[in-house]
Amino acid sequence: MAQPPQITQLLNQWSSGDKDAEAALTPIVYDELMRMAKRLFRSENSGHTLQPTALVHEAFVKLIDVDVDWQDRAHFYSLAARMMRRLLVNHANARRAEKRGGGAVKVTLDEANVGADAEADLLNLEEALQGLAALDERKANLIELQYFGGLSFREMEAVTGLSSSTIDRDLRLARAWLKDALAKN
Question: Is the pTM of this model over 0.85?
């Protein structure tokens, strides 16, 4: 029995315009994108106006339109994580604008190991990540890959080309910096 095509192969075929590759890729990546979205929504209240399925669909629509030479599956999920983050921030900004400052989306950062019981709203997190990126873009990118993308160390090594010891050190420093920045908000 023949092996199904690898995600990287399908991504490359898809970016070359192969609609059959897109159709084959969609069900393969959909489950992983849903896992990422559900992880992001784990700490949300049940009345949140954006649901994981809608987030996945919006992100996937944006991924279809992106013109990228895919390196591998980790590169795809990294970009998907970045798009989900942007969509959540845009949604939170729109909600804040509607309510004139109230009801920002809450995100628990325990999963990213930013700190025990550390909780911050998404807009404060976005502001803190932008501050970290201004100081050290690599560390901000690693936080994004781990927290929003759910990438493992091995996947982050593949995406960034960094060693696991460098990733570990950078993540520890980034978490400490974010914890301090979020505590000031």
Answer: no
